[in-house]
Amino acid sequence: MQSCPHVIQKSAGKSVSLIAGLVLLLSTASPSPAASSLPELTIPNGFGVNIHFTGDPQDLDLIRDGGFRVLRMDFSWSGVERQKGVYDFERTGYDALTAGCLKRGIRMIYILDYSNRLYEQEQSVRTEAGRKAFAAFAEAAARRYSGKGILWEFWNEPNIKQFWSPQPDVENYCKLVEEAAPLIRKADPSGLLLAPATSGIPFDWLESCFKQGLLQWIDVLSVHPYRAQAPETVLEDYDRLRKLIEQYAPQGRQIPIISGEWGYSNINWDKKRLPDEQQARYLARMFLINLHQKVPVSIWYDWKNDGADPNEREHHFGTVERDLKPKAAYVAVKTLSSALAGYTIDNRLVTSNEKDVIYLLRNGNHSALAVWTTEADHEIALPSKASAGTLIDMLGQSRHIAWQSGELKLSISGSPQFLLLAD
């Protein structure tokens, strides 16, 4: 899960007025068939989180209340099929999890993974018998939950040895997708097919998959844009990835990108400690950046801390502690989801400082701003036709502010603020 830092992408075109009175048009590009079935680009429709449980525990209430609307969870082949040709969806907890999510208005991404020792000896699928067995398992799962709009994902991070052993193998991975995709599509016409759920955005590996025909069999491209650097560094990666997809996509099709897994542990990838508040900053910024980039689903990794070892990175990705006590990250996503519920991003506004990020959002006749900077705290002055609003900080503290002379002055930092304009 490695990536290289990149610079912030500036919006094209001339400067525009920064507050109310703007009429900024959304993109008029026609959506692909897959995009029409994905969540709309409205807060918090596509906000999601990765979990590591099945059943219907208290966690699901907290997840819903935090503003998450999508869950991503392993759908374990070896757990469901312990005897050849026999699939147990009830005792493994998937029936309860699916029902629990649906009644709370939460959509599921089920990751069809990993291998099964009944057919394969490694953490991969490399034989004809294994591929047919995996496809049969996937078809049975799709039929079981048909009509529920599930996003079916093929494997998790097959581009790294940890999840596809003994070595990552583009050819065998693509053969697996080709075998299973038509069966899933027929069994569950309401679902969408996602792949390849890569660790990072490995362009060479992805292009190899595209050459094998991967984009013919799927609806949505999923990647995991992990990085030690701030979320803003993803912009150039998305631009490059879209160009690569366009090069290989079947004629007349647009393949959407989703951010299928991306988070920041309190022990960052560069081994530096990341305080809870900084983790929360990155969470809020990641969701907003992805939304601006027309990424309809963003899955934060992870729901809760997986352990208590102070030196183990994997134990500290959560939005809540192991006992479900909220961390700052949970408060941040709850604040973002509630303060800007129903809003969509019109545009990133052009400023004299490219390190300052200002998004204009709209909800019907209402306007709002999301504002932060990637450099040191400082004050900005924004030309404005509005004269008052409610300013909400990342952790939910709000206050009414007013200004005169057509200019709003704000102190900004790395923590996003949301200004709901009164006029």
Outline the structure in words.
This protein is α/β, with parallel strands linked by helices. It has 2 domains: 44-339, Alpha-Beta Barrel (TIM Barrel), CATH 3.20.20; 346-421, Immunoglobulin-like (Sandwich). The protein has 11 helices and 16 strands. The longest helix has 18 residues, at 170-187. The radius of gyration is 22 Å and the shape is globular. The relative contact order is 0.15.
What form results from the Cα inertia axes? Answer: globular
List the domain count as a whole number. 2
Name of the top-level CATH class of the largest domain: Alpha Beta
At the fourth CATH level, what is the homologous superfamily of the largest domain? Glycosidases
Total strands? 16
Strand arrangement in the largest pleated sheet: 1-2-3-4-5-6-7-8
Q: What is the succession of H and E elements? A: HEHEHHEHEHEHHEHEHEHEEEEEEEE
Query: From the alpha-carbon coordinates, what is the Rg to the nearest angstrom?
Result: 22 Å
**Mean pLDDT value:** 91
Q: If helices are DSSP runs of H or I spanning 4 or more residues, what is the number of helices?
A: 11
Which structural class best describes the helix and strand composition? Answer: alpha/beta
Helix percent reads: 25-40%
User: Which residues form runs of ≥5 with pLDDT under 50?
Assistant: 1-36
Estimated share of beta-strand residues: 15-25%
Instruction: Could you tell me the CATH topology label of the largest domain.
Output: TIM Barrel
| Architecture per CATH nomenclature, i.e. the level-2 architecture of the largest domain | Alpha-Beta Barrel
Q: How far is the first residue's CA from the last residue's CA?
A: 45 Å
Largest sheet: 8 strands, parallel, barrel
